[in-house]
């Protein structure tokens, strides 16, 4: 049992609206989640994480001084074990992809129900992602640099920059590269086991080693990595010949 499952998650709420922070704090506190700090902009969020070391940050995307995407990148660089959930009033795919590329573990609209908010915080605190790998794959295929048919800037403003993930895949064994490739195609552990003719326990071991070697937080980030390092290309499917 990990530390995250033995106690309630410790949370920092970063949003430039006082009412949002207050409302979220009351919701989480009422459900046994410890809100250890608040921030009104991205710079304050980075400082709060440095001083308070929370398990999870609820991070608004649009904030003054420093936006949530840049703050998320800095938070995750200084506190790799921290998990970030991005918040917004805009249900726009381009922001979801940018958040994932920044290393966020999930994405919520601000009109989320109290029960969903609390369950989302508990979920990412255990190391899981809020977005299913299949949804992540759809976003990456649409918005990853060089993806065919990637849309241009919308009328409401330019899409946020999503820097490519740079990881050294040389640390992986050939089998681990194969597993990562199939994870990038949104296969579950059960599907991976069937595809590779392995036991599910063996697949889980490979996945754990990949995460450790590449410092990945969850499967959603693994999907982004598989695309942005070229292991998977838009249009690939589980039936595409595997790399040798």
Structure description:
The chain has 11 helices and 5 strands, in the order αβαβαβαβαβαααααα. It has a 5-stranded parallel sheet, with helices on both faces. The radius of gyration is 18 Å and the shape is elongated. 41% of the residues are buried. The N terminus is likely disordered.
Please give a handful of descriptors for the protein shown.
alpha/beta, disordered N terminus, 5 strands, 48% helix
Task: Write down the overall geometry.
Answer: elongated
Radius of gyration: 18 Å
Number of strands: 5
Strand order in space, largest sheet = 2-1-3-4-5
* Approximate strand percentage: 5-15%
**Which regions are unreliable across 5 or more consecutive residues at pLDDT < 50?**
1-5, 148-164
Q: State the separation between the terminal residues, measured CA to CA.
A: 37 Å
Biggest β-sheet description: 5 strands, parallel
Average pLDDT, to the nearest integer? 82
Number of helices: 11
The helix content, as a percent range, equals 40-55%
SS-based structural class? Answer: alpha/beta
Order of helices and strands: HEHEHEHEHEHHHHHH
């Amino acid at each position: 049992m990990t530390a995250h499952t033995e106690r309630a998650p410790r949370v920092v709420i970063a949003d430039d609206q006082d009412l949002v922070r207050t409302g979220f704090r009351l919701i989480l506190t009422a459900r046994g989640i410890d809100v250890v700090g608040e921030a009104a902009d991205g710079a304050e969020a980075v400082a709060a994480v440095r001083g308070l070391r929370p398990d999870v940050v609820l991070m608004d995307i649009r904030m003054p001084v420093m936006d949530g995407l840049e703050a998320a990148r800095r938070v995750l660089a200084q506190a790799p074990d921290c998990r970030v959930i991005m918040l917004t009033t805009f249900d726009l795919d381009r922001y979801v992809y940018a958040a994932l590329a920044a290393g966020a573990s999930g994405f919520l609209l601000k009109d989320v129900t109290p029960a969903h908010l609390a369950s989302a915080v508990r979920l990412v605190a255990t190391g899981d992602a809020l977005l299913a790998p299949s949804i992540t794959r759809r976003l990456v295929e649409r918005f990853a640099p060089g993806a065919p048919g990637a849309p241009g800037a919308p009328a409401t403003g330019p899409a946020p920059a999503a820097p490519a993930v740079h990881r050294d895949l040389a640390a992986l064994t050939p089998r681990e590269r194969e597993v990562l490739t199939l994870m990038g195609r949104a296969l579950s552990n059960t599907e991976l086991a069937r595809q590779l003719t392995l036991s599910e326990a063996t697949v889980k071991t490979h996945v754990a080693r990949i995460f450790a070697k590449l410092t990945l937080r969850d499967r959603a980030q693994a999907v982004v990595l598989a695309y942005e390092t070229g292991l998977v290309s838009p249009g690939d499917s589980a039936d595409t010949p595997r790399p040798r």
